[in-house]
Structure formats: C-alpha cells, structure tokens
Amino acid sequence: MKKSDLKKVLKPIVKECIQEALIEEGLLSGVIAEVVKGLSAGQQPIVEQKQSTEERNRLANEEIQRRKTKINETRKQMLDAIGQSAYNGVNIFEGTDALSSGGTPDAPATTQGPLSGIAPGDAGVDISGLLGNGNKRIWNSLLEGKR
C-alpha cells in the first residue's frame, strides 16, 4: 500500500476520533474552561496612585522644616561645645546660612560652574526694564547703526 492511499484511509478515522474525544467526551470544554480561568486569574486591575501637588508641597515643606531644625540644633551644639563664655555670650553663627553645596574633605576638587559662587536664593540683577518703552528709541538707533 502506498503512503497516499494509507493517508486517505487513516485521515477520516483520525479526524473522527479526535472530534469524538474533543466534543463528545467534553475535553474541549474542559480545555477552554482552564484557559479562561488562567487568563482571568492572572489579571489584577492596575491602579495608579499619584500624589497630589498639595501633598508633595506639604512633604517638601516638612523636609525643609526638618533640615532647618537640624541646622539650628547643630549650631546650638557647636556653641555649647566652645562655651558661651568664650565669646562673651555672642552668637558667632548669627546671620549665617548653610552652604548651598558642600563636599567632603577627602573628595577631590570638583570643577566650578559659572554660578558656583552664587547663593541659590540670590535674585540676581533685575533686567525687566532693559527693553522698556523709554529705551525703545535707543535700541532702534543702535539697530540702525546710529548713536
């Protein structure tokens, strides 16, 4: 018997056996039920929690207050360590601010930026009136090449 003849005879028999096993014996419904159960069990709803802006601001303010308190405690401890009588009771740290960025004594020197020596709270120079109405003709004459 040839392979193609054997195929023609066996293919309908195998097809009927598989169909009978899947449909009549309930194997297919069991497989589908297991797949659906597996898909639904693995899916948890994804919930994204965002902090509100007010919450972030409150936490930032609390952190700033905590740092200020720590700095003041450190100043007080330093004054107590050197003794109040050493400087006749004068607070030598009065009016001082903490460094904007500090380093460690063992660390190598870092490169300095263009604003490295400027305090972070420094407002700088007010240039809002630089292009004001009163200076318009001066700027126009400079643009034309006249002075």
Structural account:
The structure is a single chain. The chain has 147 residues and is mostly helical. The protein has a domain at 13-40. Helix content is 52%, strand content 0%. The protein is built from four helices and no strands. The protein has helices at residues 3-24, 27-42, 53-82, 136-144. The chain is elongated, with a radius of gyration of 40 Å.
Quick take:
Helices cover about 50% and strands about 0% of the residues. The chain is an all-alpha fold.
What features would you highlight for this structure?
147 residues; mainly alpha
SSE layout:
Blueprint: H1 3-24, H2 27-42, H3 53-82, H4 136-144
Mean pLDDT across all amino acids: 77
Q: What is the number of strand segments?
A: 0
Q: Major β-sheet, in short?
A: none
Structural class of the secondary elements? mainly alpha
Shape: elongated
- Measured by DSSP, the beta-strand proportion falls in under 5%
Gap between N and C termini? 111 Å
| Unreliable sequence segments | none
Helicity level, as a percent range?
40-55%
Write the H/E string, N to C: HHHH
Output the number of helix runs. Answer: 4
Query: Over the alpha carbons, how many angstroms does the gyration radius reach?
Result: 40 Å
